[in-house]
Amino acid sequence: MSTSDPSAIDFADAVTGDAPPASEDLLARCERRIGYFFRDKLMLRAAMTHASGAEHRLASNERLEFLGDAILGFVVCEMLFRQFPQYLEGELTKVKSVVVSRQTCAKISEALGLQEFLILGKGMTTTPTVPPSVLADVFESLIAAIYLDGGHEAARQFINTYIGPSGVGRGGRARRQLQVAPAAVCPARVRQHADVSLARRKRPRP
Questions:
Q1: pLDDT surpasses 70 at 166
Q2: In CATH, what number is assigned to the domain containing residue 84?
Q3: Residue 28 placed within a domain
Q4: Is 8 within a domain?
Q5: What are 194-200's contacts with CB under 8 Å, separation 24+?
Q6: Least confident interval from 47-56, 65-74, 192-201
Q7: Which among 65, 69, 110, 137 is annotated as catalytic?
Q8: Range of 49's domain?
Q9: Is 140 a catalytic residue?
Q10: Active-site option among 91, 137, 140, 149
Q11: pLDDT for 15-63, tens place per residue?
Q12: Which of 76, 52, 50 minimizes the C-alpha distance to 64?
């Protein structure tokens, strides 16, 4: 790796390292499940790698989670801004806080079955269920991986598929599973919330 900073670590080197490889079939099934096919498969592997299953923490999905959280927030903010022009700042903030919450991210990951593709350490694989915090992390990491691999538009489309006005979880499995997701994730419920808030603002004061 050519760099003037000897302390810098190339992303590809960090991901590759000596971490246990994820089978190509596993990654291919993950791509089919999420509806996005990576040009750089290392990005997908990194997004699916929990710290417990990585050779070192730079090879885990923690940095991707950091980036994905910001991308998710930005895309959802723009989405709500355009979809609800009658909303005030405080109302937009309340809806956004639920739509991008850890609970929402975990529910979407669970609906997509992302736990099947996680690269976990031995300590994590012995537990019967994957903690919601890990599921939330992997959804944000996946957003970042798609952004780095395919750009802003690819990430926006992915987010829009599962959170946007076109509907949560277009895939059959996701649509069935997401019945247990928070109500505010469903665009129809968001619109209903918007209508109620608007009516309250227009209600004459006594």
A1: no
A2: 1.10.1520.10
A3: yes
A4: no
A5: 194/84, 194/86, 194/87, 194/91, 194/95, 197/87, 197/91, 198/86, 198/87
A6: 192-201
A7: 69
A8: 22-199
A9: yes
A10: 140
A11: 444 444 557 788 999 999 999 999 999 999 999 987 675 676 776 789 9
A12: 50
